[in-house]
Design a protein that fits this description.
Low-confidence stretches: none
Strand content: under 5%
Helix content: over 70%
Order of helices and strands: HHEEHEHHHHH
Radius of gyration: 35 Å
Number of strands: 3
Shape: rod-shaped
Number of helices: 8
Structural class: mainly alpha
Largest sheet: 3 strands, antiparallel
């Protein structure tokens, strides 16, 4: 039963709304032909006003009308089935209601997919904005730490602030790396170029800051681990590393990020 349910659901999912609607119309037409054919062979299955529905064009119109009324489950009662027509009417009612329910579900599902896509788009764009904002924050923090080294601030304070900045930088670097490696995440070239340029700038500021550290500065274990993570992620960002083809402008910034990563070791 579960396999049957899944097969039926998959079959409905594979059909478009128009196909399901045409199938619903086809069910109505086929049922009306069955009613009318019964009248042709002498088996009058529809009774209208106390008299059997005939096999002429008027009779076909009555059969078509009754078929529509049955499919929509309205049931005015002006035409009633008898004999074999009762079986056809029941089968038509069940089939037509199921198909029409699938049509309605398709409309609702389509609307839900549009809403989900819009929510995803807005959320994704907001995430891209936050990446660039956080990268600018990282650059500002690294520049502030550089000023602290020039004023001979306590090394423990420098280490704490540097740990925090590098951890934030690592997270945004990982997100950018995922943008380049996942084909389903489509980003406009201008937006991605701005992110990569800011990322390359942050990498350069970080590399210069590490070279300015006094000899007595000892990297803490969390800082060492995070810097290794940053280096590993940055080395995976290059024109030849990523599995997709990008424009020369994007490749330029990727290669800049990878080359700067070598200075962090």
């Amino acid at each position: 039963m579960r396999r049957l349910d899944k097969s039926v659901l998959d079959l409905v999912e594979q059909r478009s709304t128009l196909q399901l609607f045409l199938l619903w119309i086809g069910t109505i037409l086929l049922s009306s032909l069955c009613f009318w054919f019964g009248a042709l062979v002498g088996e009058h299955g529809l009774i209208e006003g106390g008299r059997p529905v005939g096999a002429d064009l008027n009779g076909f119109g009555s059969a078509l009308y009754f078929s529509f009324v049955t499919a929509t489950s309205i049931g005015y009662g002006d035409i009633v089935p008898s004999g074999f027509a009762r079986v056809v009417a029941v089968a038509e009612a069940v089939t037509a209601l199921l198909i029409f329910g699938a049509v309605v579900a398709k409309f609702v599902s389509h609307r839900q997919e549009e809403l989900v896509s819009e929510i995803h788009r807005v959320t994704f764009e907001d995430r891209l904005d936050r990446i660039e904002t956080n990268l600018h924050m990282v650059i500002s923090e690294l520049l502030a730490i550089t000023a602290m080294t020039e004023t001979k601030a306590p090394l423990n304070r420098i280490n704490t602030r540097l740990e925090s900045a590098v951890i934030l930088f690592s997270g945004e670097l990982r997100t950018t790396r995922d943008l380049l490696y996942q084909p389903r995440l489509l980003v406009e070239e201008g937006v991605l170029a701005a992110i990569l340029a800011t990322l390359a700038s942050a990498m350069n500021v970080l590399a210069e800051l590490l070279t300015l550290m006094p000899p007595e500065f000892a990297r803490s274990q969390p800082l060492t681990i995070t810097l290794d993570r940053v280096t590993g992620l940055a080395e995976e960002i290059c024109g030849e590393c990523v599995p997709h083809t990008y424009t020369p402008r994007l490749v330029f910034w990727m290669n800049q990020i990878q080359s700067t990563a070598q200075r962090l070791k």
